[in-house]
Amino acid sequence: MKKLFALMLVPALAGCFTASPILVAHWPVEYVGPVSAVRSGKLGIGRASQVVVRAPYNAEGISVLRANGTVEHDAYNEFAALPSALLRGALLDAMAASGKFKTVVNSSSAAISSTSVELMVTNLALDCRTKDGRRAVVSIILRVLKSGEIVGLEKGEGSADASDGNYGAAFSKALSSALSEALTRLP
């Protein structure tokens, strides 16, 4: 009887040991926007100081906007890191590409900077509300401080087709568009 029970148990447990783990895609996001040929450097040394991503978009799982108005986090598609950490590099690259700064430094740099740039992300989601497909959407606010005073507060928005499933490229395009729009408006 014990042998019969053991023989019946083996096929039942076999699935537990041979099942493939769920594969999760980790998507990078980077600045892929235009690079200004004009280098005014009017804003001096720029520091990318703070990146804040508003909830519910601050999770590692990509936020998905559904047709019923809900926001869900995709269990199979995640950003390569938390959005606030991931977008800091994109902000640095966008600031450098804008031509508005003599040079750009990270928040952890010991260099003295004359200008500080803060990024607030108000929307970072995969918009699935239409039957036409999926779009990566990004909305941002850039706050620029010089000697502690706000000298610029600019909004930027971007979106890119994500129906091919390459979410890293789509979010990179959307973010780059939003950053370029906001940085272009700075003095």
How do the helices and strands line up, and which of them pair or pack?
Blueprint: H1 2-18, E1 25-27, E2 45-53, E3 61-65, E4 71-79, H2 83-98, E5 103-106, E6 115-127, E7 135-146, E8 149-161, H3 167-184
Parallel strand pairs: 1-4, 2-5, 2-6, 3-6
Antiparallel strand pairs: 3-4, 6-7, 7-8
Helix pairs in contact: 2-3
Describe the structure.
- This protein is of the alpha/beta class.
- The chain has 3 helices and 8 strands, in the order αββββαββββα.
- The protein has helices spanning 2-18, 83-98, 167-184; strands at residues 25-27, 45-53, 61-65, 71-79, 103-106, 115-127, 135-146, 149-161.
- Strands 1, 2, 3, 4, 5, 6, 7 and 8 form an 8-stranded mixed sheet that branches.
- Strand 6 and strand 7 form a beta hairpin.
- It is elongated, with a radius of gyration of 22 Å.
- It starts with a helix and ends with a helix.
